[in-house]
Write a structure and sequence with these properties.
Number of helices: 6
Low-confidence stretches: 1-38
Distance between the termini: 41 Å
Structural class: mainly beta
Radius of gyration: 28 Å
Strand content: 35-45%
Largest sheet: 12 strands, antiparallel
Helix content: 10-25%
Shape: elongated
Number of strands: 26
Length: 450
Amino acid sequence: MKTHHSTAPTSLALMIGALLLAFAACKKSPETIGNNLVSDDDYLGVYHTDTAEIVCHSYFDSINTTNATSAMLGAMKDPVMGNTEAGFYTQFRFSVAGQNFGSAPVMDSIVLQLYISGYYGDTTVVQTAHVYELADSLSTDETYYNYSEVATNAVDLANGFQFCPRPRTKVHILGTDTVRQPIVRIPLSADLGNALINMDTTAYSRPDLFKEAFRGLYVTCSSVSQDGAICSINLTSNTFTMLQLYYHDASTPDKPMRYNYYVTSSDAYFNHFDHDYTQGNAEFVGQLIDGQEDLGQSTLYLQTMGGVRARVRFPNLSHWTDSLENSHLIVNDARLILPVAPAAVDTVVYTAPTTLVLVGFNADSTTYLLPDYYEGTGYFGGTYNASTRTVTFRISEYLQSMIMEKKANAGLSLGINGAAYNAYRWIVNGPEAEEGERMRLEVTYSIVNE
C-alpha cells in the first residue's frame, strides 16, 4: 500500500528542537489531562504541535440492523458515493386475538401504511416501491446485518407502486379518518388480503401461530436515475404504521370494516441496504473499489447504512519518548480536527450529520470505546460545528495510553452516529489536504522530570 507521510518528527528530540523556537511563547496551563500533575520544581514548559503523522483511508462497513430504531425505505443516487437502495424485512402480528371475519367476508382492499419520521435527500424524486411476502420466517433470536437476506415469494405485491415521499405533509384525510402525521400508503395485491381473511381461525389465536401462517413482508424501492431520498419509517408506531385490511360481509355490503396488523418491538425486523459504489465519482471508486488507500490522505468518505467508515492511525506515537531517559511526556490536551471536504459542498440535499463517532481498534480489529468518551460529549466532542465546518474529538487520554504503549496502537475507526437507522453521508479532508483545511492532530504536552 502506498502511503503519504506528513513531516512529523519521528523522535521526541527532533520534535522538541523544532518546537522550542516555533512555540517559545506557547507556555500556558494544561487544559485537561495532566492538570495538577506537574509540580513547580519539575515544570519545564508546555509545548504544542499539529504536525503529528496521520495515516488514514476509508473502508467498507457492516452493521447489525436488527430491530433498528427506524426502518429505512427509498433509493438515492449520490453523485459522490453511487447508488443505495434501502428496505426492511418485518413480521406482523394481529391486532385482536380470536378474530372472526364472519360467515361470508369479502375482501375490498389491503394497504400498507407507513409513518415517515424523517428523511435524507431529495423527496421530490419519484420512488418505486416493491413488497414481497416472506417465504422463510424471521426470528427474534437471530442477529441480522445490513447485508442479510431472507427468502421471499417472487410476486411483487405492490406491483411497482410509485410515490413521492411527503415528509412535511402532516394531515391526510382518509375517508372518515384524519391522520396527522406524514405517511405513505402502498396498495397491495388482493391475493394477500384474501389469504389473510381466509386464514384458518386458529392462526388468530396466538401471535406465534399467526407468524407461521403469515411470515411477514420485505419492503424496498428500486434504484433512481439521480438524487432521490431515503425515508426513516417509524415501524412500531401502531397509531400510524399498520397493514390495513378493508372488507365487508356479503350480507351487509354497505357496512365496510377494517382490521389492522401491527409491528411491535417484540417482533423481528431489520434493515437491508444495497449499495452500488461503482457509480460513485473517480476518487471515491479509486479509494474504495480499486484499493488505492493512499487517496485517503486527501479525502475521507463516511456513509451510514452499512456503508463506509474511515480508519485513522498515528503510527509514530511510540517514538515520541525515544530520547527521554529521565523524563516523561504528559499529554495535556489532544484534539483531532476534521474539516469538511469540498466534495461535501451540497449540504442542502446531503445535510451534515449531527454527530460523528470515534472508537478504537483492538489488535484483532474489534473495537472499543475510547477512555475520553466516558468524560461525556461536552468533553469528547464529535458534533458538527457549522460555523467552522469542522468536527473535533478530544482524545487526550487515548493518546497518552498510546504513547505509553498501554494498548496496541491499531488506530481509530471514524463513522457517523446511528449507522443502522439513518441515511447520512459526509466527506472530510485528509491530512494532506490544502494547508489550513487539512485533518490534523493538535497536541499540547509537557516534559517533566522523574
